[in-house]
């Protein structure tokens, strides 16, 4: 994990916020949000296990979402953090919900979370696209990287993920491409999803859960994927994030921070009401 991305809190820090990126992505993706958080928050953009800069996983052993969740909690405990507010995108959003299930998360803000699909055909469509990218991008990376200096190329390359790919710097774009090339955990993780199914119901996590779905999500379109997630997490508050794609960090960073802060404030309000 790039330690330069972790904010150093003052002694009177207010809250710790754990940020979890999506599958094949990298923790750098949260960079547009970091300057927008209050200065007294400790922000931890974590590299997911099995991803670029993340903790290696043993691919000879069964891979599961539960395994990734346990590794994340253990890493937080190693840093002296027993609980935190958790925000995640896509796979990171699903993991955030699992961290609520196990009692680690103080609040959850899940942006277009993975984990729900209306039918097996929809699951296969997403799964095959991810496995294809992991296999093909390493072959194409020598061709793509020199082209990242061109704004139109970055916009085109990331069009399926976000509305404003042109806002990504050439260096950040190269990191995202590298992350896709170095993500060996994806094929076995996809197999585990196919074997074990979608997210298990989370009827009442007893903490604030805000699920923020990008209105222009082309990867997990809300018209198709939102309702199955609502069925799985009926106690959550569902919000549409306008003018944003599946990976909204470069599209709506200020709105994302506002939604995370809202989840945190709901926790504070709940504590006050129960006092």
Automatic annotation (TrEMBL):
GO terms for molecular function: hydrolase activity. Keywords: Hydrolase. Residues 17-258 form the AB hydrolase-1 domain. It holds the Pfam family Abhydrolase_6. The keyword Iron does not apply. The keyword Hydrolase applies. This is Alpha/beta fold hydrolase.
């Amino acid at each position: 994990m790039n330690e330069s991305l972790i904010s150093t809190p003052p002694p009177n820090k207010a809250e710790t916020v754990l940020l979890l990126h999506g599958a094949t992505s990298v923790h750098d993706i949260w960079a547009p949000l970091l300057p927008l958080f209050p200065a007294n928050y400790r922000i931890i953009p974590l590299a997911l296990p099995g991803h670029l800069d993340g903790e290696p996983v043993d691919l000879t052993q069964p891979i599961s979402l539960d395994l990734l969740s346990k590794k994340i909690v253990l890493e937080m405990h190693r840093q002296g953090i027993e609980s935190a507010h958790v925000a995640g995108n896509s796979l990171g959003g699903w993991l955030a919900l699992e961290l609520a299930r196990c009692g680690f998360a103080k609040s959850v803000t899940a942006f277009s979370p993975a984990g729900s699909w209306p039918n097996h055909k929809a699951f296969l469509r997403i799964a095959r696209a991810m496995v294809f990218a992991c296999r093909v991008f390493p072959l194409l990376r020598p061709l793509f990287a020199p082209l990242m200096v061109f704004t139109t190329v970055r916009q085109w390359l990331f069009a399926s993920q976000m509305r404003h790919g042109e806002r990504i710097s050439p260096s950040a774009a190269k990191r995202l491409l590298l992350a896709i090339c170095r993500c060996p955990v994806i094929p076995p993780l996809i197999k585990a999803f196919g074997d074990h199914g979608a997210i298990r119901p989370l009827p009442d996590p007893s903490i604030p859960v805000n699920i923020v779905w990008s209105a222009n999500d082309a990867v997990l379109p809300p018209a198709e994927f939102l309702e199955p997630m609502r069925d799985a997490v009926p106690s959550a508050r569902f919000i549409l994030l306008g003018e944003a794609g599946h990976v909204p960090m470069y599209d709506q960073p200020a709105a994302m921070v506002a939604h995370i802060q809202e989840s945190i404030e709901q926790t504070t309000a709940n504590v006050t009401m129960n006092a």
